[in-house]
Amino acid sequence: MKKTLALVLAMTMSLSLAACGGSASGSSSAAASESADSAKDAAPDKVYELKVSTTQAETAPIVEGLQAIADRVAEDTNGGVKITIYPSSQLGAEEDMIDQALQGMNIAVLTDAARMSNYVYDMGIFNMAYLVDNYDEACKVMDTDIFQGWQDELVDQGIRVLCFNFYDGARSFMTNKKATTPADLKGQVIRTPGADPWVNSIESMGATAYSVAWSEVYNSIQTKVIDGCEVQNTSAVSTHIYEVCKYVDKTEHINLVNCLITGEAWFSSLPAEYQEILLNDAYGSAYENAKKVESLQPEMEKTLVDNGMEIVEVDKEAFKEAAKAAYEKMGWTELREKIYAEIGKEA
Q1: What predicted TM-score, i.e. pTM, was given to this entire model?
Q2: CA nearest neighbour of 23 among 33, 7, 38, 12
Q3: For the chain, how big is the Rg over CA atoms in Å?
């Protein structure tokens, strides 16, 4: 983000936005550049349509953020770019949508770093346990030369990152047997997404990883096919995980940062001023949405407790130490140290 995106945002946003490409305070149109203003004022000669696919439910906080992008872009392009949000995988499976975006179709996908690691391997480190401790720290990683290099590589692979700063909260284990240390997870079959960064992280912390579609998790726990899951509060609340799990083992092991990507072929077909507006509004809206998700965490945790779950305080240092084995297995121990050196964090 530091190089290419900084050039864009320097023209369109105040310096307070640079660290994470967003603003918690204002309208994107107030910071628009001269070219963006002229795009907004002029009637469009052509309307570009973009379909945004997400697995998130319509009521999920992130979907609200996606809609904010659509509204801002429509306003700032005077209707020149029309974005429609399709929640709950209405358009199809995430991998299929990414393939369609790569083929040049007018598709954007809300996804994560683990899936992007299929194209730029090292990017998967963003979905490793305890890479960062919170959203603000994740923003610092996005501002590194390393991260900018990954985005440039994605462009070479035909993928354009519109923003990488959506946030869905920290993931913890939700189980029916308390787990305060990694040893307590031994023998427990825990659902996690199937990508290697997730699987190796979860297994390094003691659990047996099991991949199943999120839509099947509730029934799988209820029928004891699996013992629990690792998930963020937003999804736990919306899917009523409290009905099938007793404990929130508060490991907060992965801070779930999501990205909105589209095909470079479709993105490059836009006029330059529309490209600028789309990047600006995506990052700004995602940042504001992320801060809202952060603010909702205590309320969502209370919902889990009010519905019968117990919050279990864990030995987080023990989990962090155990998670280091996953970095070794993925070949990312040195990369982690380089990232920490850039953001000024101790390993």
Answers
A1: 0.85
A2: 12
A3: 20
Contacts of 331 (CB under 8 A, 6+ apart): none
What is the residue-wise DSSP string for 267-281? HHTS-HHHHHHHHHH
In this prediction, residue 217 carries a pLDDT of: 95
8 Å CB contact between 260 and 108:
yes
Location of structure tokens 């390094």: 204
C-alpha distances out from residue 220 to 159, 168, 178, 223, Å: 34, 23, 19, 5
Whole-number Å distance between alpha carbons of 180 and 251: 8
Q: Which residues pair with 293 in a beta bridge?
A: none
In this structure, are residues 91 and 106 in contact, taking their beta carbons and an 8 Å threshold? no
Token pair 């963006």 is at which residue?
36
- Among 347, 346, 339, 324, smallest CA distance to 146 is for 339
Q: Is 3 helix (H, G, I), strand (E, B) or coil?
A: coil
Q: Which stretches of the chain score pLDDT less than 70?
A: 1-19, 21-42
Nearest Cα residue to 19 out of 37, 6, 30: 6
Contact partners, residue 182, CB within 8 Å, separation at least 6 = 205, 206, 318, 319, 322
Cβ(239)–Cβ(217) under 8 Å? yes
The conformation of residue 8, written as its DSSP 8-state character, comes to H
CA distance 134 to 143: 15
Q: Which two tokens stand for residue 259?
A: 């990205």
pLDDT at residue 40, as a whole number: 58
| Burial class of 272 by CB neighbour count within 10 A (0 to 12, 13 to 18, 19+) | exposed
